[in-house]
Amino acid sequence: MATTTIVTGHDRLPALMSLMTGDEKHDRSATSTLDVLWVLYDRFLDIDPDRPEDPDRDRFLLSKGHGPMAYYAVLTAKGFIDEALLPGFGGYGSPLGQHPDRVLLPGVEIGSGSLGHGLPIAVGTALALRARGRAARVVCLVGDGELDEGSNHEAIALAGRLALDRLIAVVVDNASATHGWPGGIGRRFTVEGWTSAEADGRDHDDLERALHETTPGRPHVVVVGAGGSA
Amino acid sequence: MTDGMRTRFGRVVDELLDTDERVAVVYAVIGTREFGAAGRRHVDRVVDVGIREQAMVGVAAGMALEGFRPIVHSYAPFLVERPYEQIKLDFAHQGVGGVFVSIGASYDAAASGRTHQAPEDVALMATIPGMQIHVPGHPDEVEALLRRIVPGEGLHYVRLSTRTNARALPADGSLKVVRGARPGSPTVVAVGPMIDPVLEATSGLDVGVVGTTTVRPLDGDALRGLAGADVILVEPMLEGTSLPAVTAALADRPRRYLAIGVPAVEHRRYGTADEHDRAHGLDAEGLRRRITAFVA
Asked: β-pairing, B23-27 with A195-200?
């Protein structure tokens, strides 16, 4: 049977990632988020690199700022970052650091790196959009280890009470939390009024499905397993 | 005086919420009395996050990123010390502005103990790049400050207190002569609520007194024009907090400096603010003793 190889942006990601060296400590963190970042930017988020300040754009907040090579690779494939910047990754004059800085990089919604900051900011962003009557969605990516930070749990409880149904948290579960999450990560959210879905972190269709399983009046969490065991 | 700083703060912000759609208020339970009514009129812009101070600052930052002008309010230790990293990263590092307003000061509620005392707040806020810091000494100054900085841009910290002076300064960021003296006489720089105790302490002495509500940026040009060879800084927070700003402004020639404020000690006393002032030598008698010894 004849097969056709379709060269998509996704196929370019490993090559783009390879242009960035010097942050091997965060390699695992980067590769664990690559597919979910791709699905968000390729299939879900309404964002245009030509209009990075569009007030109606969806907001993507990378709270887990560790291992941003995957993020930079996806932003490059989608036209937000000039590929020529990638080899300078981590350099003194580069806008691409080992943790991203929104002031240096148009299209990046928040600077992150210290864990536990993104989700409270995302709650504020969702509140602001609601106050302005805008329907844009706010997606915040956190790690399962990052969930140890108590600030996340302040935000999880608050978002549920405030019924922020344009807010989606994506938790990449590498089973890296020191003491684990007995009973599952999703339960931490559903008890506060969120809806929860699980997805296989390597299955793009499954990720897309889980992102869309939202319910009016409730924030939504997608728990992304590393290879199908969410 | 008909009201205190906190009451005036609530009244002015209530009005600003009605007249400026950029204004938002984010607080953590403390402030329900001031903002409860406004919250019913502006349900999306007045947010009580519950007892969640990290989320309070993060939520306010998210609103700032979307163009709102958040006023963030709590008791000083819970506004500044507990979520310090959120102020540093969620506001300053993201490059957005906001107005932080605290109550409690160093030990307004002395009987509440150390957990509710924050003489260190201004020193911490002074480490935040771009943070402008105001220590008003009168409710009129609070109102003038809010009407100037809330419609503006940038990061501001306003430190409210129950300790007030009899008269208000203009609160326009400038240093003012409160009591003149002969040229070359020692100069006391009195910050916010310390102006009246300093005036009483220096009565009859050949000492000039200048006052300010804004300590960052300090009005260095005015200070250079007014300061004598001996400079005494008296502030109602951690001793020496504003000394770097004073010495930086007065680097033009050699001077002697004395910084008077709240010492960095675990005092472990309850009681009243006046009793704490006496213990730390911040009442008029203690101030006079230290100032006269320094200029003798």
From this structure: unpaired
